[in-house]
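Supplementary material to the annual report.
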Amino acid sequence: MAIVKNDTVIEQEWITVDAEGDLPASDENLIVPLARFKEQREDLIGRNGGLGVLLNPGDAPEDLADDLDRLSIITVNFPAYTDGRGYSYGRVLRERMGFKGELRAVGDVLRDQLLYMHRCGFDSYDLNVDGETALTKVRAALKEMSVYYQPTGDGRATAASLRERRANATGKAF
Amino acid sequence: MYRYDDFDRQLVEERTAQFREQVQRRLAGDITEEQFRPLRLMNGVYLQLHAYMLRVAIPYGTLRADQLRALGGIARKYDKGYGHFTTRQNIQYNWPKLDEIPDALLDLSKVEMHAIQTSGNCIRNTTTDQYAGAAADEIEDPRPYCELIRQWSTFHPEFTYLPRKFKIAVTGSPNDRAAVKVHDIGLRMHHNEAGETGFEVVVGGGLGRTPFVGKTVRDFIGKNDLFSYLEAILRVYNRFGRRDNKYKARIKILVHEEGIEKIRDLVEEEWAQIKDGSLRVSDEEIAQYVEQFAPPAFEDLSDDSPELALHKAEHRRFANWVQSNVIAHKQPGYAIANVSLKPIGGIPGDATDVQMELVADLSEKYSFGDVRVTHEQNLVLPHVKKADLFALWSELDAAGLGTGNLGYVTDIIACPGLDYCALATARSIPLSQRISERFGDMDRQHDIGELKIKISGCINACGHHHVGHIGILGLDKRGKEFYQITLGGDASENAAIGKIAGAGFSEAEVVDAIESLVTKYIDTRDPGERFIDTYRRVGMDPFKEVLYGDR
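Predicted assembly:
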């Protein structure tokens, strides 16, 4: 397992807890499934350590609207790469709700989906390979394509915006 | 017609290079077939019964002459000399070798074509009226919007792993030739009360095992807002569509289970939050795309053509072809010529390399180099001078492409069936050939008039049998093929799902059963009534009786 963020392999600094069971010591950094977060919200936000939430498919990121500035990280679970709900959660969190913390893809995270995840606002990826392989995969995936048609919150210029820019510069459409 | 600019070209070239590298990894054994599967599917490569199959996208069914010529070349170079045009206005090649597919894709990229998103749980090729830009009954050419949808949907990062595949169809005419009501999203252009042009948005139509006619989610969306509205629908579907059962994962099931009102609320709520965002398309940008599809340089002609009248009087087969295959054009003196890929006894939708190259040549000679593919698996030359129709037909006819049967009983839609398809439970092609032969006589076909027979070789309904006036579904019963007949289906603006007539027929019985239905119609019809009209008037019972008697 290796986590890649900002073109670097980073350490795992978070403990992801299950839906039930005892919580670790108060100064540990915790990631809590959304359902548990909603149940134990008061206890959790009173802790000393960092706080994050895990979204599973079917969860509503909107439930976090009042707490986004308390969360350092949101992890989104892709239980199988074919379950694409997490892409919508990423865009809603970043583009609509303005989440500025770390957005990490976990679960069945494979090379061929990384670019789409990045375009939907993810900035870290938990891959089931060693660090060097993970970094190689992320680097290759993020530069595999260079033309984008859809405006998303990732800041990449779309073909339409580049066409418009060129048309303004040359006075010629297309 | 739309031409790629450097952005479009670069995208396709990068994708082609990416897939070549993926194929190399597979051939070298670095990845398993299991791992390769999703990668090849995203590039239109299926594994069929006997071989790989490559499905090439023909965006909104529009081809330039050079593109059709290249499709013919690919049939010769990488396949057995033919290709198969599909009900989604695409083309399939049945016998490519995996190690050669990257080369075929490279050849395609040189004529601005690809196989992107012709498979997988993503937004598939957008289809439209094959007569777009030519039809006399059209409000506006829908293709500029189709091209914008093509771009918006290509590698959409959020919507590449949907619950299931997603198909969008657009019509710019009140007479729906694109079957928009049986698509995941159907868009029908019309005017609102203020006189503006926009789209009615229909969702949740579809065929397959659970057929539904789509329901209107919004009566009118303006052109500038179309793309944010589509995004809102897709986001609702991606988040809330079922993923627990692939047979219940299409948006039609979501609409059916939740109700159209609930879906409308969800979509409108989502749309309200994104409608003023960056997906709003300006009038200027739309105008640029409209300009790309500007009409060709038509000559100023009288609508009457003495040459046409003369040739029709002299050549009965030609006159019949004109009657069935030629459609009114909006430009005086021009006509829309349909090229039937349903020769009597032939394989529906198949064309040889030589035929494709010939139609490409003829399109340059007679139709401004413009060719269309129809969802009924025929080709169209959309802009032919009436005075040229006879010369065109003569050349088509010499190549086996002059059959005058458009919309007739032998113009059958059929899926590839058990001859090719790994999912099929029965053969479709041989049955369509036998029906075609049974009704092959041209006078008889003209007498019967419009009658749409559609054949699927399994419950997935690729042959659109649910919306055939007569639909045929091939099934397997204890190792024997048998065929279930449905009646009263319709893919037009009056869309309806056919009803099952009763017990299925054996392969030996089914052609006689079809003939008995046709005979009953002839005996029952009022003057001017089509089969579907008679069926609607008299209902199922008289037809059931000829099929089953007292059974």
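The mean pLDDT of chain B is 96.
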